[in-house]
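Exam revision sheet. Question 4 asks you to relate a sequence to its structure. Input first:
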Amino acid sequence: MIIALTAGYVCDRPGSRLKVLIPLSLLLAGIISLAAVPAILSGWDIPAMLEIMKSKRLFLLLAAVSFLCIGAGLAETLSLQPGGGRTWGRVSSVFLLACAGIYLAVHTRVHPEAARQVMILHMGIGIPLAVAAAVRIVESIWTSKPLRLAWLALLIVASIQLLTYREPDKAFAPRTVTMYQIGN
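Answer key, structure tokens:
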């Protein structure tokens, strides 16, 4: 949310010092979400967290999204350097696009009873984030205020979806697997 609001403010003030909030907010989001993984999975019990991650590899995606946010933050930091703006801004957008891809694909890895609900919720995050990243890439080629504002609006939508998201209860419930022997 900080990214979108800062981008909106900086949109008309390119020389503003507040533009450092964009990479800082991405870095903080990645670091906080990475630090939250052990708290969410095991109440800060690292050996238990590692055991959970071994048995349910889907949770590795939490760390992947965190690292992608950190990568986007580092790319945004480099985009503030003289001469690095457009290229590193595009790299940051590619990291955000990868995050969106994870959100759009993760519903295939949850419990079948919750997959539809998870898909709908994750599409509400992934689609605005993917379109925002694509708009940002286009905006880096053809600079225009409407594209910048569209990027801002899409980031706000994705941020609100992320802030209000709650995982459905059955998403990670145990599954029953039936195996049949074919042939002799």
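Marking note for examiners. The radius of gyration is 19 Å.
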